[in-house]
Amino acid sequence: MIELRGVKKKFGEQVILDGVDFVVQDGETVALLGPSGTGKSVLLKHIIGLIKPDAGQVLVDGLHVARLKRKELAQLRYKIGYVFQNGALFDSDNVFENVRLGISDETKYADADYSRDRVAQVIKLVNLPADVIDKYPSELSGGMRKRVGIARAIVGEPKYLLYDEPTSGLDPVNSDIIDGLVERLSDELGVTGIMVTHDVRGAFRVADRLALLSGGKIIMQGTQEEFLASENPKVKEFLERDFETPSNAAA
Amino acid sequence: MAHVGRVSMLVVEIFRGLKEVRIWVPRAFDEAWNIGVGSLFIVLLVSAFAGGVTAYQAGYQFTGSLPYYVVGTLVVESIVLELGPVLVGLILAGRIGARYAAELGTMRVTEQIDALESLGRSPASHLIIPRVVAGLVMIPVLVVFADIVGVLAGLWAAKQVLPLTTADFTYGAQYFWHSFDAYYSLIKAFFFAAAITIIPCYMGFTTGQGAEGVGRSTTGAVVSSSVIILLLDVVLAKVLLNS
Ligand SMILES: Nc1ncnc2c1ncn2[C@@H]1O[C@H](COP(=O)(O)OP(=O)(O)O)[C@@H](O)[C@H]1O
Ligand SMILES: [Mg+2]
Fold first, then answer.
1. Could you tell me if B159 lies within 8 Å of chain A, comparing CB atoms?
2. Which residues line ligand 1 (CB under 6 A)?
């Protein structure tokens, strides 16, 4: 279970999170919606301890993320796969090395046979051709890079997957492929997921539940039906604006 | 001044990461190769010119009251003690320092450093230690090459302007030579290498947001590592040559 309780975060004078309460149960896939620049990525980074809250608590499986010692934090991070917005692939390593770095168990990482097979397996799982493993990130299209990013996040068999705008900047066909992938990972591997997005359609397709971040707070959580029926002007505004511009550019 | 504290923390991180030998050693080899191949030409070019010009000017200023072999002393001492390490240091601050800051800065703004941490891996052992170790090993090696080539170029140039033989030059070189001079050159190179690697790694690692952030870290890294080299030059001369 992932729990954020009263999480506050400022950068300088700029208040980004202003008391976020947000819980994700095991097995769920929750879409975290919100206009760009509201702090969705900042929220996600709190969960793996890349950013520490100024106030409030972040708990994963009951552990206080911000209070963990270095070793414990590394252990926790092995359980969480993080898919970065633009892939964040390591430029100087080829796809194989990129994905292999996600193998958290040191003995398995060092085992050449295991890593080769495991990397090939996840590359197939994300629908990439087997020969991409020799390519460098700069040789891949945006959609492929995102899929390699997903492969790297799942290769260590995480319990949780955090996706930061996995479909932003992609054309509708590629977006559909990624959404389908997120769905499959949740159904087939039983991964608990949080998908940050401002693509409402994708969110409706993939998520069991949605949450809207606005003004530093989660202003609404609920199912697709509850969102569509909401009278909250901010929710309505967000849904309407997004349906008018179906293909969003990167945030 | 807050930088000093944070640079020290980076150094602590570096020591902590050193036990992950399997991670950093192969990366350090790649990096060392990059440094060697990438910088050898410019280092040799500059040191050859420095040696040549030193000898040429010595010859030009010669009044005749001094024996010719003094040119050998002059060239060897100025190249080995000062010009070799300092010129190489400043050039490499521009080459290696700028590259390290730009690479790490780009990795910071494109979230590659976050990604590494999200995998439970240590940026110190994956990114910083290989770069620092490679520099600490290769920069002194480059300085040795620079010293040798500088001296040889000095010998050649001296022979062009003065009726001096190789034997005169060698005699002069040995006359005032202490074996400590070679160590001094290496010690300097080592300290400069630390400045050229650690400061840019720190600057790159702590890059602010956006492409301007990378630009700022890169120029900042070159300027501050160059200034530190010049300061170290003074400090080391005071500490090591005053005995
Ligand atoms: N490390 C940081 N330092 C300073 N400001 C940051 C940092 N990370 C994010 N911000 C700021 O926080 C705000 C929210 O960012 P972000 O979470 O990336 O938004 P989004 O909802 O689009 O993902 C932005 O204004 C951004 O500039
Ligand atoms: Mg974002």
1. no
2. A 11, 16, 34, 36-42, 251
Q: Answer whether residue B1 is part of any domain.
A: no
B117 contacts in A (CB within 8 Å)?
A: 48, 50, 77
CATH 3.40.250.10 fits A1-79+193-251, yes or no: no
Chain A residues near residue B22 by CB distance under 8 angstroms:
110
Residue B231 in domain:
yes
* CB of A45 less than 8 A from some CB of B: yes
Which residues contact residue B160 at a Cβ distance below 8 angstroms, ignoring those fewer than 6 apart? B56, B59
B186-222 pLDDT, tens per residue? 999 999 999 999 999 999 999 987 788 999 999 999 9
Q: Whose CA is nearest to atom 6 of ligand 1?
A: A11
Total domains, chain B: 1
Cβ B118–A73 below 8 Å, yes or no? Answer: no
At residue B9, the pLDDT reads 85
| A45 contacts B110? CB cut-off 8 A | no
Residue B197 and residue B127 in contact, taking contact as beta carbons nearer than 8 Å: no
Please identify which residue in the block is written with the tokens 């040119």: B71
ipTM of this model? 0.90
Could A73 and B120 be called an inter-chain contact, meaning their C-beta atoms sit closer than 8 Å?
A: yes
Residue B237: domain span: 30-241
Looking at the CA of A164, name the nearest ligand: 2
- Please say if the pLDDT value at position B1 is more than 70: no
Tens digits of residue pLDDT in B35-90:
999 999 999 999 999 999 999 888 777 766 788 888 999 999 999 999 999 999 99
Spans in chain A with pLDDT lower than 50: 246-251
Token digits of residue B233: 């030059």
3-class secondary-structure state, position A145: helix
Q: Please, what is the end-to-end C-alpha distance for chain B in angstroms? A: 32
Give residue limits of the domains in chain A.
1-79+193-251
B226 within domain boundaries: yes
Q: Containing H/E element for A219?
A: strand A217-222
Vertex B121, ends A189 and B220: CA angle to 5°?
130
Nearest-atom index, ligand 1, CA of A39: 17
Instruction: Confirm or reject contact between A101 and chain B (CB < 8 A).
Output: yes
Average pLDDT score, chain B: 92
Nearest CA to ligand 1 atom 18: A41
Residues A22/A216, Cβ–Cβ less than 8 Å: no
**In angstroms, what separates the C-alpha of A244 from chain B's closest C-alpha?**
29
pLDDT at residue B193 in the model: 97
| Phi, psi (deg, nearest 5) at residue A79 | -85, -10
What is the mean predicted confidence (pLDDT) over B141-158?
A: 95
Closest atom of ligand 1 relative to the A51 alpha carbon: 1
Chain B residues touching residue A77 (CB < 8 angstroms): 117-120
> Which pLDDT does position A251 carry in this prediction?
42
- pLDDT of B3: 81
